[in-house]
UniProtKB/TrEMBL annotation:
Protein name as it appears in the record: Cadherin domain-containing protein
Annotated ranges, domain Cadherin: 55-167
InterPro entries registered for this protein in UniProt: Cadherin-like_dom (IPR002126), Cadherin-like_sf (IPR015919), Cadherin_CS (IPR020894)
Source organism (scientific name): Tenebrio molitor
This protein's record includes keyword Cell division: no
Keyword Transport: no
Length: 391
């Protein structure tokens, strides 16, 4: 600590010799001091100790960090050349400094003009998935390195949709009814619309992922939001299917998985028991007839996905889509109550409540099931529609 006025020592170096003794031994230490005039100490021209800037990932080297002012340090009484440098937080040398007037880009930039300072620029292409945030420490110093000032600069790397969803497996194997076979999921008992397994893909950008079956089938449907595969119809005989599933992220524009997943599905119906073999021919015929009718009523048409804008659903009662009939005797009815749409018997899909993009959830979809009754055949089938609202 000081014990008297040190103003006569301003701008003069001082060498102090300090003795350290522990009773038996004595050590000497040389301490160098430099007294600065408080009015002439360097400081950055900023009201904050920390400033925030942003840059998009994949920007080319030399891109100026957005949102940052020109960094300038100054002293009160005299004007001297000031050297700026990055002394901390510059992982992998990702950033450099650029003279605000001359445009020179260096690790250390010396500025002699009172109107000049430095900008922070990228030194390489940045990847947000590797590092999303940097905190740089910028130092300004006089030519002899005595008068110094520091400030912190926070740089956030903004995300771009530069990654596509990737499946966790190339091939998925699902088995229903035969526990002697190996698979990712083996089910010996089932019911209609129960899950027989699921596929999964992840997006390195952190985006949500939706799934769709690229191979149409009446036996399975996929839940777009989860990747669960549902058994929509019980096959009458042993079935082996090879399906293709695609995944895409929920961004605009969207990216699709570069390599779809392959799904191998095997269904083996249960073997007849001894009791069933003892049934008389009439009862067996009745069972087969009932099973045939049941198969008719379980027909499932392929899932449809249609894109709309939010403005398409801005009027209650508006007809936004017409379901297609295979015969004139078909009538339609929505299976479960839906807050956004209703379905008329003639297949007209109408707005029930004005569509609000923000209330649709992260997937921005309106999903509903429709029961189709065929008066001519006396049966019913299920049709799944998925509508996507895009602004």
């Amino acid at each position: 600590m000081t014990v008297s006025d040190v103003s006569p020592l301003v701008n003069r170096p001082i060498d102090l010799l300090v003795l350290e003794g522990d009773g038996n031994n004595t050590k000497t230490h040389m301490l160098q001091l430099y007294v600065l005039d408080r009015r002439n100490m360097l400081s950055f021209k900023s009201d904050n100790d920390e400033v925030l800037g942003r840059v998009a990932e994949n920007s080319p080297a030399g891109t100026k960090i957005g949102g940052l002012p020109v960094l300038q340090a100054a002293s009160g009484l005299t004007t001297v050349p000031i050297t700026y440098s990055i002394i901390g937080g510059n992982a992998a040398q990702a950033f450099e400094l650029r003279h605000s007037l001359t445009g020179d880009v260096l690790q250390n930039v010396t500025v002699s003009d009172n109107q000049a300072g430095v900008d922070v620029v990228t030194a390489q292409v940045l990847d947000r998935e590797e590092n999303a945030r940097y905190v740089l420490t910028i130092q300004a110093s006089d030519p002899i390195g005595v008068n110094k000032a520091v400030t912190n600069v926070v740089i956030e790397v903004e995300d771009e949709n530069d990654n596509s969803p990737v499946f966790s497996q190339k091939v998925y194997r699902f088995v229903v009814g035969d526990d002697s076979l190996e698979g990712d999921n083996v089910t010996t008992s089932w019911k209609r619309f129960s899950s027989i397994g699921k596929v999964e893909a992840t997006d390195a950008d952190g985006d949500k992922v939706a799934y769709k079956l690229a191979t149409p089938t009446n036996y399975l449907v996929i839940v777009p939001q989860t990747g669960d595969l549902l058994l929509s119809e019980e096959p009458a005989e042993e079935v082996d299917l090879e399906l293709v599933v695609e995944a895409h992220d929920l961004r605009v524009p969207s990216r699709t998985s570069p390599r779809p997943a392959q799904v191998l599905f095997k269904f083996k119906p249960p073997e007849s028991s001894k009791v069933e073999l003892d049934l008389d021919l009439q009862e067996l015929a009745e069972r087969e007839l009932h099973r045939g009718k049941r198969r008719v009523t379980r027909a499932v048409r392929p899932t449809k996905r249609i894109e709309f804008t939010e403005s398409d659903g801005d009027t209650d009662g508006r007809n936004v889509f017409q379901l297609e009939k295979e015969t004139d005797r078909e009538t339609f009815k929505i299976r479960d109550e839906n807050p956004w749409v209703t379905v008329d018997p003639n297949g007209a899909v109408r707005v029930k409540k004005k569509w609000d993009y923000e209330e649709l959830g992260p997937e921005k979809t309106i999903d509903f099931w429709v029961t189709i009754t065929n008066a001519e055949k006396g049966g019913k089938s299920i049709f799944n529609f998925s509508y996507t609202c895009v602004i």
